[in-house]
Design a protein that fits this description.
7 helices; mRNA splicing; 2% strand; mainly alpha; mRNA processing
């Protein structure tokens, strides 16, 4: 795989847009890594779940259905799969892919959404979805990783008082 390493995000990647509120979303940062942590991205790309099962999903609706049926938390790692014993603070399990553990279904699906190059309408469909808080959560995570920082509040405003429970881990 090409360098995933410590690539710093740049300004918004130039994409054709139809105005600030058109259907084509701008993409901020690295258009290959989605600005994900290199260890998380490496684990997603090498995950049998991502490479086999998610490869078969070709449409936005298929991926949304997969989120509904498979996501039970939105942490990056599956519970109990990281070996961080004896490590503390910022060094707790951040060095090397081996310490990453098993990447979560949620992060595999988040990157799958990225490969689909969502439209504004599709992203709005995620963050306003009523069937699952995890569908909405992945929509907001997609915004966080792909949209220009100056636009984040505009996306999040109106959702900040959402009281539905979503188990983080």
């Amino acid at each position: 795989m090409a360098t995933v390493g410590n690539q710093l995000p740049t300004q918004a990647v130039s994409k054709p847009t139809s105005g600030k509120h058109g259907n084509v979303l701008p993409l901020w940062g690295n258009e290959k890594t989605m600005n994900l942590n290199p260890m998380i991205l490496t684990n997603v790309l090498s995950s049998p779940y991502f490479k086999v099962q998610l490869y078969e999903l070709k449409t936005y609706h298929e991926v949304v259905d997969e989120i509904y049926f498979k996501v039970t938390h939105i942490e990056p790692w599956e519970k109990g799969s990281r070996k961080t014993a004896g490590q503390t603070g910022m060094c707790g399990g951040v060095r090397g892919v081996g310490t990453g553990g098993i990447v979560s279904t949620a992060f595999c699906l988040l990157y799958k959404l990225f490969t689909l190059k969502l439209t504004r309408k599709q992203l709005m469909g995620l963050i306003t979805h009523t069937d699952s808080p995890y569908i909405r959560a992945l929509g907001f995570m997609y915004i966080r990783y792909t949209q220009p920082p100056t636009d984040l509040f505009e996306w999040y405003d109106g959702f900040l008082d959402d009281e539905e429970v979503c188990h983080l881990g």
